[in-house]
Design a protein that fits this description.
The chain is globular. The chain is built from 14 helices and eight strands. It has about 400 residues and is α/β, with parallel strands linked by helices. The relative contact order is 0.12. The protein has a domain at about 170-200 and about 215-410: Rossmann fold, CATH 3.40.50.11900. The chain has a four-stranded parallel beta sheet with strand order 2-1-3-4, with helices on both faces. A four-stranded parallel beta sheet has the order 6-5-7-8, with helices on both faces.
Length: about 400
């Protein structure tokens, strides 16, 4: 396929922690709000006058300082965030909201706060923590709403004078929905028999939506969508199998590029920083009957929090229905995107994903007859020869299974 004309724009956005779009927003007087997990409602951080920035550490060359403060037994993503802050990569932030979804990330944010790393260049910088729930019942919804009111909205209003009214929240939701609708339409081209967009390209585009103001992204996504409508696909034998990539945090598109270089086209992304389910639209203002408590009279904040809680696919959610739902969700993505298998990965020393990864590797093949490749990996793994070899072996075994199925049905 011909190169996407807009791809360079997205690649430049994610090349570092700061970029031209964020600098332009700061010149307009907009606040830069860092956050570390989408269990915290992103739309509340994109109120008028604010720009949310999901924290990552692109291009970090060493984790020596991060390891010194956090030890080598913490996940590399958390250590890399601390390292990046020491390197000055997030000196432009006005505040950071921690979802407290992961104890290791909480330790990373504690180091950033107590060591005053970002505060040295911004005296009004603060860190606030939101205690996100581990279940998805009504108590969890109400708890998250209370947390977001006290720890996010009230703090933004009191510290910076941000408008946190329902009207302001609705504007943020509407802009979020426009961006998500465009991104999902772009992603739908991966369902085609011969997709006109690769998994790497989509990963870059999706990651850029976490790294720039949504109003700017909307315009660029429209350009990309128009380009895809006339783009010609690669020959049908360009990839040997189609896969869904699932698991923990992936903010390195080179990992996706490595998978595709072996012959496996990534058609869906159920991982942290991916589009499923984090780039789903928020349904407002009406709600379907029977989805919870008295939804007809439910306040806007609770409605938003309800949708974030209900759609969350993180293994931190421990209730039985969520445990089963996560496997069903992956199987549905495989069917919807006509994938041949699943690659489930986790960051080394992750708290939650080792258990989920083991369960997926056992349950999905047995219950759904879907091949699964299970792997752990370092933070920067795009050039890993070992992982590349494992993906190649998975492609071959998946092709053999597909051939055997065809012989049985012949």
């Amino acid at each position: 396929m011909k190169d996407l004309k807009t791809l360079t724009f997205y690649e430049e956005l994610i090349a570092g922690t700061d970029n031209d779009c964020l600098r332009a927003a700061r010149e307009d007087g907009r606040l830069m709000i860092g956050y570390n997990c989408n269990q915290l409602p992103e739309v509340l951080l994109d109120l008028p006058g604010c720009v949310s920035v999901r924290m990552r550490a692109p291009g970090v060359s060493s984790m020596d300082v991060g390891t010194y403060y956090m030890t080598s037994l913490n996940c590399e993503y958390c250590r890399a965030i601390v390292e990046m802050c020491f390197d000055g990569g997030y000196n432009f932030l006005d505040c950071v909201f921690d979802s407290y979804a992961c104890s290791q990330m909480a330790d990373a944010i504690d180091n950033i706060d107590k060591l005053g790393i970002c505060r040295s260049s911004n005296s009004r910088f603060f860190v606030a923590r939101v205690d996100t729930p581990i279940k998805s019942d009504e108590n969890a919804v109400r708890h998250l709403a209370r947390m977001c009111k006290a720890r996010v909205l009230d703090r933004l209003h009191d510290e910076f004078g941000i408008d946190v009214s329902d009207e302001a929240i609705l504007k943020a939701v509407e802009e979020h929905n426009r961006m998500c609708a465009l991104l999902n339409e772009i992603g739908s081209y991966r369902k085609l028999e011969h997709p006109v967009i690769t998994g790497y390209e989509f990963a870059v585009i999706c990651l850029a939506t976490y790294s720039a103001p949504h109003d700017i992204m909307i315009g660029k996504l429209r350009e990309t969508l128009a380009e895809l409508k006339t783009r010609e696909a690669d020959p049908k034998d360009a990839f040997r199998i189609r896969v869904v990539v699932a698991g923990s945090e992936v903010d390195d598109p080179d990992f996706i590029k490595m998978i595709e270089s072996t012959g496996a086209l990534v058609v869906a992304d159920r991982y942290c920083f991916g589009s499923f389910p984090d780039r789903m639209e928020i349904s407002l203002p009406s709600h379907e009957a029977g989805s919870g408590a008295d939804n007809a009279s439910e306040d806007l904040l609770t409605s938003i929090c309800r949708q974030y809680v209900k759609r969350c696919q993180c293994p931190r959610h421990m209730d039985r229905n969520k445990i089963d739902q996560r496997k069903d969700y992956l199987a549905e993505l495989v069917r919807e995107y006509n994938a041949d298998g699943i690659i489930v990965q986790q960051m080394n020393f992750c708290n939650f994903w080792p258990y989920e990864r083991a369960a997926i590797a056992h349950i999905i093949p047995e219950k759904y007859d879907i091949p699964v490749l299970s792997m752990d990996r370092p933070y920067s793994s795009g050039m890993s020869g070992q992982l590349r070899t494992r993906v190649q072996a998975f492609i071959e075994s998946t092709e053999i299974k597909r051939l055997r199925k065809g012989m049985k049905h012949a």
